[in-house]
Amino acid sequence: MSTLTLKKLAVRGAFWTVANYGTSQILRFGGNLLLTRLLYPEFFGLMALVNIFVIGLKLFSDVGIGLSIVQNKRGEEPAFVNTAWTIQVIRGFLLWGLCLLIAYPISLLYDNAQLLWLLPMVGVSTILDGFSAMAPFQLERRLDLSKLMFLELTTQMIHLIVMIVWAYLSPTILAIVVGGWVSGIVRMVLTYRLIPGYRNYFKWDKTAASEIFAIGRWVFLSTALTFLAEQADRLLLGRLLSLELLGIYGIALMMGDVPRQIAMALGHRVILPAASKLVDLPRAELRRKILPHRLKLLLLLMLGILILAGGGDLIVNFLYDERYAAAAWMLPILALGMWPRLLCATIEASLYAIGKMQYTTFANFCRLISTTVGISIGFYFFQVPGAIVAVSLNDFFYYISVSFGLHREGLGCLRQDAQVTSYLVGILLLMMFVRMRLGLGLPFEGMF
């Protein structure tokens, strides 16, 4: 594949990724606004706890199936793809069995009997995911992302419609559970319609399985630590805060996480497939091809951080009622804390492409430790505000680890990071000055 063709595919892939994510967020926020008026905040806190464990089981058992298809040279071979699908189906049933096993001890740990039946019910999604086709991964490999946009937006719209209608007719937590079931079934069916004539069947190729598990060892460790690092805040705060306040925190985090989610989507669906096709280039040349495009992306993401950090409180107060007032001061702090992770998310996929996952694995370990220690200390001395500030600082150590790996592999970008960060700080200070002049105060004043 020529460099020009790859560039066109990458640009087109970036367009579809951003369009997909932008539309998805509009639907997500719209649905969230309606649901917050139909359901109690504690329902969102309870589902946050349930999802922590269901997602955690998925990540703790991730053997790199999708990554193998995107990265491996055999990613288009039927024997390889169907062996991957067979592993995925087996994994889905095992995960649901684990949901059954952990439901009782988790309900005791959090002293909530509803978790006893919620975990197995939500865990049905693991079986539906297991039977989903491999077509989405093959489309990612080809940087053909328009069909994935159709898949994800259709699934999301059906998910929201079912939840909202059920919540309107019966405002219980079952609205969220049933919405997940229906969307999971729809997604599973649609995955077989993405590529004409596509099908998967049970197959076991020993060589293919060995290759999948070879990369899966690092993926397993990385994703396990990713789960602990990403969810440690909710695991700890679930014990320290009421379900109502945990639900409010979840809403603030969801909004503040938007720029990072965009960056992660681009990294996974555009940067990784593109960089995987250029891994034979000298590192210096690979770096030269990535950095100019990364700079443009960082400037766009910086705009999102500025909006959320500089005016997030105004957005929350406009969109939500007084029950969610605490999210107004949480959002700016959490959004600003995302910046180090954005710097990583726009370049770390290149480490995956060259097979160097150990740096991000260690980065997640550092993030886990900083989150656990930080929340414990912050809550002990300053209660909820201290815990939220600790969460916002936990990506700093992640950034240090990834930056070390990039430098060691000849892909370092510290100078570019410093340049864009100076823009962010300067503009944010100007925004604070304007807010004070307009009598709006600082965006995080409500924390005390």
Kindly list the characteristics that best describe this protein.
single chain; 448 residues; mainly alpha; 19 helices; 81% helix; 0% strand; globular
Description:
There is one protein chain. The protein has 448 residues and is mainly α. It has 19 helices and no strands. Helix 1 (3-38) runs parallel beside helix 8 (146-169), helix 2 packs across helix 11 (243-256) and helix 8 packs antiparallel against helix 9. The longest helix has 37 residues, at 283-319.
Write the layout of secondary structure elements.
Blueprint: H1 3-38, H2 41-60, H3 65-71, H4 78-109, H5 115-123, H6 125-131, H7 135-141, H8 146-169, H9 174-191, H10 206-240, H11 243-256, H12 258-276, H13 283-319, H14 327-337, H15 339-345, H16 349-353, H17 358-393, H18 395-408, H19 414-437
Helix pairs in contact: 1-8, 1-12, 2-5, 2-10, 2-11, 3-7, 4-5, 4-6, 4-10, 6-9, 8-9, 10-17, 11-14, 12-13, 12-15, 13-14, 13-19, 14-17, 15-18, 17-18
DSSP strand (E) fraction?
A: under 5%
- The number of helices is 19
Basic shape: globular
- What Rg, in angstroms, do the CA atoms define? 22 Å
> What is the element string, with H for helices and E for strands?
HHHHHHHHHHHHHHHHHHH
Coarse structural class: mainly alpha
Average of pLDDT: 83
Biggest beta sheet summary: none
